[in-house]
Design goal:
The chain is built from ten helices and 14 strands. By secondary structure, the chain is of the alpha/beta class. It has a single domain (about 5-295), classed as UDP-N-acetylmuramoyl-L-alanine:D-glutamate ligase, CATH 3.40.1190. The strands form three sheets. It has an eight-stranded mixed sheet with strand order 4-1-9-10-11-12-13-14, with helices on both faces. Strand 7 and strand 8 (about 105-110) form a beta hairpin. Helix 6 (about 190-200) crosses helix 7 and helix 8 packs antiparallel against helix 9. It starts with a strand and ends in a 5-residue tail after the last helix.
Length: about 300
């Protein structure tokens, strides 16, 4: 079994679910439900990988506050090793408020410790313990971002494969340093909005052509339209599965977990895309980013009986 290190942000999500509309200035919108759950793209991916039976360790920086303790407890219960998480009493653990409907979501984030992890917190001694490293929320991790390319280069020299999910750039500048980081990256998981913004493209297909660098396998997540990748110059499409989503929070991170679960076991690209899409779809059936994540048995049952969108 490959050993996976997820290095990234850690925070709770406060979810306002079932909103009929997104709030606008001067107006109030009622939510159908509220929950506080484990947030952060990195942690949701780690939980999905552990749920599927993978050996996963998490590395992050958080405060010694109640929010940090809440996150660690959930990760531990989910089978994720948290011994490498750095707790700093001088920091406040970040928090995200997620305003969610069945179709989309909006996020408000207090960065706090989210922005404090840096390359020096991940020495070669740590990397040597693992076979693969995953990083999410590239644009939120303000201190890790400048050293991410070097971090991935070190990981590659030590024999690890690497994957990156950019997340949304709140500044909407979409700095081109990411493209340089991809030169040291094996797998890249943007969603459609991110892929188009990063490449200044008009379509997901065009974005894949722009991002082609001879090394990185890019998978563009298209939500209800499935996902798209390019292999050997050929486009490969995976339609979405037919489900009625309850909450789309973290669906892309659960997709990442499913894809990595398959890819690290050397399954085909087609199978990896299908398993990623299935894990993403299943995650939308329960509130929060982790409640609907499947184990291997649940994944196999879903694949055997659930149709794809025609």
């Amino acid at each position: 079994m490959p050993k996976i290190l997820v290095a990234g942000e850690l925070n709770p999500d406060m979810i306002l679910q079932g909103c009929g509309a997104f709030p606008t200035p001067g107006k109030e919108v009622l939510a159908g439900d509220f929950a506080m759950v484990l947030g952060s793209a990195s942690a949701i991916c780690a939980m999905g990988l552990a749920r599927l039976g993978n050996a996963v360790s998490f590395l992050s920086r958080i405060g010694t506050d109640v929010w940090g303790s809440f996150c660690l407890e959930i990760l531990e219960r989910g089978g994720v090793d948290v011994s490498k998480v750095i707790r700093d009493p001088a920091l406040k653990t970040g928090v995200t408020v997620s305003i969610s409907s069945s179709k989309d979501r909006a996020l408000v984030t207090f960065l706090g410790a989210i922005a404090e992890l840096n390359e020096q917190n991940i020495p070669d001694k740590t990397l040597k313990e693992f076979d693969h490293m995953h990083v999410s929320s590239y644009y939120l991790q303000q201190r890790l971002r400048p050293g991410c390319r070097q971090l991935f280069a070190r990981a590659g020299r030590l024999g690890l494969t690497t994957s990156l999910d950019p997340g949304y750039d709140p500044s909407e500048i979409w700095g081109q340093d990411l493209v340089q980081t991809l030169e040291e990256t094996d797998l890249f998981f943007p969603n459609e909005v991110e892929a188009l913004a990063i490449t200044r493209s008009q379509s997901p297909e065009q974005s894949l052509q722009v991002l082609a660098n001879g090394r990185t396998l890019t998978v563009v997540k298209l939500g209800a339209q499935g996902c798209l990748a390019m292999h050997g110059g050929q486009l490969l499409r995976q339609p979405a599965f037919s489900v009625r989503p309850l909450d789309t929070t973290g669906a892309g991170d659960s997709f990442n977990a499913g894809f990595l679960h398959a890819w690290l076991r050397r399954l085909s690209l087609s199978d990896s895309l299908q398993i990623g899409a299935a894990c993403g779809a299943l995650s939308t059936l329960k509130p929060g980013g982790t409640g609907g994540q499947p184990d291997e048995g649940e994944l196999e049952a879903f694949l055997s009986k659930t149709p794809i969108v025609s």
